[in-house]
User: Which sequence fits this backbone?
């Protein structure tokens, strides 16, 4: 197998073609979960818990069932032992098991002939709760005598990465600085809701819902209901922005339960309050850390301890290898992470999980070290961040977490792994070139005036600049399995079948570009199915910045397979038995590569006709699938971001305005610059929102979400971001990813926070806690007796 | 019980609208732009059997100067305010206020009357209008009343409107001559309601002496607060005499008049501090526009 990328002139890769569903999107005809309807469909609504932790003592549905139009009700009595483990540890647990674990947890559901009737019936379900002690605080949930939220207990195994010797690092340090940062939970807050539509015919289940992980949902249904995967059809519809929210969630299982009960297609459409308060959110997190620095700017140690609350059904514990990788230049390190359950709404992986939080703490502490030795933050990053070829720090402990390299390669031949990049070493890219190029474009050296020194002061308005960096994986673990199947039709057109989400990230377009490039056909000749598990091969889904790298790899390999089959026939039938590897396809025409003098040409469709009319061939189409073994991405590939921000802070009111923005991205080969630019800016706005305004507020008495609408959950709008942010790319070719491409979606979200926080610091001379609301800024200024010109 | 419905009524004249309201009393609600009503309806915070849509009553939609008054019809939209900014300095201040509100899309449907009648403590138009000394006209089957806007707002979502009355006009009398007004607020993102706000109105005589001043605060009490202490600090002074000391004192007066509370948007302390900052800034803004025209 040849995994090494051979640079060549691309025809389709790198083209900024419009996304393939652009027309449907702008004309409003694209069908999302909420738009989907089936004949004979009825409507479901979920009864949600009003208490944070309780056993259901008695649940009486007779009044609800008596309401005309109500077709059925499900409670925990209909769901004995129903649970799912999911595919990642991200999210798992019971479905309707008679225990409520947060305000908003599912306790029952009603199906009725209209939404209004179902809604009215909810009030007619009488629930008697036996309250259990609840734990609403992540640190309290750690204590031995804390109420336990899950059967497995609250506290997950610690995940730890250690290298070098901390004591040694402390001795080498001239200064050791410590810091604690606390983060509120970010709400996914996608501008869109979701619905799930399910039918149950015999033991055949079909489900339509907006999801970024169709196969995982298929597995979940298979596990929960014990039916063969071949009988589970999940059709993942586009979700619009998902960021991890529309992965797989309990309400989908509840829809399946209701459909089984009433034997009719059932649709549960969530309200925006349900989407914002009863599904999932980012974790509440706390990072404590110490960093040691020598006078010459060498980071001698990094010692971090991180805590994240999983809410009721989250199960996360491992994320932070991205941060330790990025700052892996620190000579000695110790990173510890724990996940803990609480009686708050479930948390799950949200875009740049861990990076946006712990990554920000690491970047800020590094900034403080740079400040201490009076070094430019840009130089400090270049000096201490990992470079291509260096060892990744995540190696040892990962071996014990889930999956490991030994198992992954067990049974593989030397031939299969021979071309793999060196395991646990960074294969390509880093922040280095991004920082250099960015500094030039942003005029960093001219604009940066020193630590805590504004670039400009105008009355109460102070401007400052900042730089931040981010990294992320390109698909997780030693699993993250994926596949792809392609079918070459009579007319030379190609169907691609790949399980992926359509969450606005444009994968359906970029995967088509991969296929068209490899097959040598125009993009118009390729169409793709991403959501229907009846036809797409199993894949872990669009999470962890996987899709371009791993599913893109599988798609290219599948095309190679189909192409090889095709070229072998062509060689035999039309090119006098020439070695098929000498042939190539361009614009759908097969010819001898690199020999302009040879004017033999045959179009794919002509060849396919020959194939079909050959009675011995017993085939009508050519199908391709990946033949090789994909190396475990986690062990070598990362994506990189470096971003530069200028902010203006009003020191009279604490308001912050972003006045200039530059984002650099290294995701390897750029498959589609428009799609990538969109990812980068979207990520930057997500990260900026997190550090400026976003944060979920929970009622201290019962943990209910207080800001469950956009009135008080403040998202950045495009008007809150500069209208012309600039994006540039560095294309360090990846040795494995399709045509040298890697992942992209998450590192840009990670780099924004550090850049903006540092810019604010430089504008006003004070570090501000996040979110940096106007009030928090004013408090920080007061506490630090900041700028005397507290102009009013 | 299950299906919520209402009868939709569409008057074309003010008279018809008042008649309809008189006929159905509390069972009827006026629908102006519906931007508040829609939310109330969705959250089941409002119930009515008749919806009187005022959109097709052209006589309610105008912004004009007549005599010494600026007159704004109840159905003038927030966007109309923006578009009429160059009518006079007060219209300019209201136009500036409107541009801080909602989004262009929402501004084209939301109305001035709706903003007043919804009586939200954070409604942006209330502080500048109260500072200017605006009055409102209410029309019912028994005739018309005219009362200061300050007395129109009684509390959160509470107004002086009687069961069968409607608001027809907001007018600001006595604003010929040299006037200026400025409103500002602290908000989180470009689309947000005010966390705290302050408005200042100043009128000077021919000799550039302040003869009337209005200071009003938003989002720091159930209804808008007039800060007479700050107004007294300003009245009688020469424009050139309004130095930083004066604006700071006026700001402090405003802060002590505020009755802010803490909620998930902001704390009492922050709101109180900002009242002082915003008031002092608004005064300086008015002074510099007056000096520009002096
Ligand atoms: C996205 C969004 C952003 C917003 N941003 C802001 C903001 O920044 N600042 C702000 O102040 N507000 C804001 N609002 C609130 C709202 O838009 C304003 O209060 C608006 O001016 C209300 O006007 P309307 O015409 O839509 O009122 P409606 O919703 O039609 O009516 C509001 C109330 O007034 C009554 N009413 C209306 N007209 C009359 C009348 N002539 N006589 C008697 N009663 C009447 C109605 O019965 C109802 O009770 C926002 C709303 C939204 C949805």
Assistant:
């Amino acid at each position: 197998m040849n995994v090494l990328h051979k640079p060549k002139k691309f025809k389709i890769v790198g083209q900024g073609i419009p996304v393939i569903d652009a027309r449907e999107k702008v004309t409003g005809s694209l069908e999302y979960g909420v738009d989907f309807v089936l004949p004979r469909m009825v409507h479901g609504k979920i009864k949600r818990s009003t208490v944070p932790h309780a056993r259901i003592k008695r649940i009486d549905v007779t009044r609800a069932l008596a309401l005309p139009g109500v077709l059925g009700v499900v409670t925990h009595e209909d769901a004995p032992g129903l649970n799912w483990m999911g595919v990642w540890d991200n999210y798992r647990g019971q479905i309707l098991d008679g225990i409520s674990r947060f305000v908003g947890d599912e306790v029952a559901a009603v199906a009725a002939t209209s939404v209004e009737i179902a809604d009215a019936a909810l009030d007619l379900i009488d629930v008697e709760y036996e309250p259990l002690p609840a734990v609403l605080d992540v640190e309290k949930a750690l204590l031995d005598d804390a109420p336990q939220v899950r059967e497995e207990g609250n506290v997950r195994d610690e995940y730890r990465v250690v290298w070098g010797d901390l004591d040694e690092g402390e001795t080498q340090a001239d200064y050791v600085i410590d810091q604690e940062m606390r983060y509120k939970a970010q709400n996914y807050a996608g501008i869109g809701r979701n619905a799930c539509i399910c039918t149950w015919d015999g033991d055949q289940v079909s489900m339509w819902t907006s999801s970024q992980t169709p196969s995982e949902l298929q597995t979940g249904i298979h596990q929960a209901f014990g039916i063969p995967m071949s009988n589970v059809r999940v059709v993942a519809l586009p979700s619009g922005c998902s960021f991890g929210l529309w992965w797989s969630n309990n309400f989908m299982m509840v829809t399946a339960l209701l459909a089984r009960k009433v034997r009719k297609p059932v649709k549960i459409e969530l309200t925006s309050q349900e989407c914002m308060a009863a599904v999932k959110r980012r974790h509440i997190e706390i990072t404590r850390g110490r960093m040691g620095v020598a006078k010459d700017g060498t980071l001698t140690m990094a010692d971090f301890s991180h805590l994240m609350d999983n809410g009721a059904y989250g199960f996360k514990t491992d994320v932070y290898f991205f941060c330790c990788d990025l700052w892996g230049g620190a000579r000695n390190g110790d990173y510890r992470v724990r996940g803990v359950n609480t009686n708050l709404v479930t948390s799950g992986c949200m875009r740049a999980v861990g990076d946006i939080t712990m990554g920000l703490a690491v970047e800020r502490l590094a900034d403080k070290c740079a400040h201490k030795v009076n070094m430019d933050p840009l130089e400090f990053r270049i000096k201490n961040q990992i470079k291509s070829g260096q060892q990744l720090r995540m190696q040892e402990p990962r071996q014990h977490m889930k999956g490991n390299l030994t198992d992954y390669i067990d049974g593989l031949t030397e031939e299969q792994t021979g071309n793999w990049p060196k395991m646990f070493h960074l294969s390509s890219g880093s922040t280095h070139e991004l920082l250099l190029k960015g500094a030039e474009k942003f005029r960093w050296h001219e604009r940066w005036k020193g630590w805590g020194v504004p670039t400009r002061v105008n009355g109460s308005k102070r401007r400052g600049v900042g730089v931040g960096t981010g990294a992320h994986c390109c698909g997780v673990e030693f699993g993250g399995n994926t596949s792809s199947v392609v079918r070459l039709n009579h007319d030379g057109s190609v169907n691609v079948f790949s399980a992926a989400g359509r969450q606005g990230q444009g994968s359906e377009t970029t995967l088509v570009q991969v296929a068209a490039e490899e097959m040598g056909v125009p993009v118009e000749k390729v169409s793709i199915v991403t959501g229907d598990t009846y036809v797409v091969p199993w894949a872990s889904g669009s999470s962890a910045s996987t899709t371009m790298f791993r599913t893109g790899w599988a798609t290219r390999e599948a095309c190679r397979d189909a192409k090889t089959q095709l070229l072998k026939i062509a060689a035999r039938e039309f090119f006098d038995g020439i070695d098929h590897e000498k042939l190539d396809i361009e614009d759908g025409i097969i010819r001898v590569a690199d020999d302009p003098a040879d004017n033999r040409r045959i179009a794919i469709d002509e060849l396919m006709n020959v194939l079909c009319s050959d009675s011995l061939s017993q085939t009508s189409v050519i199908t391709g699938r990946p033949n090789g073994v994909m190396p475990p991405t986690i062990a070598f590939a990362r994506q990189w971001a470096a971003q530069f921000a200028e902010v203006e802070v009003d020191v009279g009111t604490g308001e912050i305005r972003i006045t200039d923005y530059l984002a650099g991205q290294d995701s390897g080969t750029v498959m589609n610059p428009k799609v990538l630019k969109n990812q980068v800016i979207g990520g930057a706005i997500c990260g900026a929102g997190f550090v400026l305004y976003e944060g979920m507020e929970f009622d201290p008495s019962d943990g209910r979400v207080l800001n469950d609408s956009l009135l008080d959950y403040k998202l950045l709008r495009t008007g809150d971001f500069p209208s012309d942010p600039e994006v540039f790319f560095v294309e360090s070719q990846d040795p494995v990813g399709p045509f040298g491409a890697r992942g992209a979606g998450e590192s840009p979200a990670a780099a924004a926070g550090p850049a903006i926080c540092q810019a604010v610091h430089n504008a006003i001379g004070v570090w501000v806690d996040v979110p940096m609301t106007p009030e928090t800024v004013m408090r920080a200024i007061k506490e630090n007796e900041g700028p005397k010109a507290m102009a009013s | 019980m299950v299906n919520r419905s209402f009868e939709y009524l569409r008057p074309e004249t003010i008279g018809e609208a008042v008649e309809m309201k008189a006929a159905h009393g509390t069972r009827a609600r006026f629908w102006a732009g519906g931007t508040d009503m829609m939310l109330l309806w969705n959250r089941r915070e409002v119930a009515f059997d008749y919806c009187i849509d005022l959109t097709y009553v052209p006589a309610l939609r105008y912004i004009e100067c007549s005599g010494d008054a600026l007159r704004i019809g109840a159905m003038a939209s927030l966007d109309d305010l923006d578009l009429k900014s160059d009518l006079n300095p007060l219209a300019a201040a209201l136009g500036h206020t409107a541009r801080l509100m909602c989004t262009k899309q929402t501004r084209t449907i939301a109305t001035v009357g709706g903003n007043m009648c919804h009586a939200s403590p954070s409604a942006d138009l209330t502080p500048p209008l109260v500072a200017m000394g605006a009055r409102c006209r209410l029309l019912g089957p028994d005739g018309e009343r005219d009362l200061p806007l300050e007395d129109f707002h009684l509390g959160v979502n509470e107004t002086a409107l009687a069961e069968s009355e409607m608001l027809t006009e907001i007018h600001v009398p006595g604003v010929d001559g040299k006037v200026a007004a400025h409103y500002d607020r602290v908000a989180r993102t470009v689309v947000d309601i005010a966390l705290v706000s302050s408005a200042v109105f100043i009128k000077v005589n021919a000799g550039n002496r302040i003869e009337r001043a209005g200071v009003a605060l938003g989002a720091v009490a159930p209804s808008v607060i007039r800060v007479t202490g700050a107004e007294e600090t300003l009245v009688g002074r020469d424009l050139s005499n309004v130095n930083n000391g004066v604006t700071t004192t006026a700001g402090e007066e405003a802060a002590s008049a505020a009755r802010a509370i803490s909620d998930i948007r902001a704390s009492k302390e922050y709101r109180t501090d900002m009242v002082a900052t915003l008031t002092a800034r608004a005064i300086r803004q008015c002074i510099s526009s007056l000096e520009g025209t002096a």
Q: What stands out?
A: The interface with chain A takes residues 1-4, 186, 188-193, 195, 247-248, 251, 264-267, 270, 273-274, 276-278, 280-281 of chain B (CB under 8 Å). Residues B 29-37, 54, 74, 78, 101-102, 106, 110-111, 113-115, 117-118, 123-124, 161, 166-167, 191, 193 surround flavin-adenine dinucleotide (CB under 6 Å). The longest strand of chain B covers residues 178-186. Residues 178-293 of chain B form a domain with the Enolase-like; domain 1 fold (CATH 3.30.390.50).
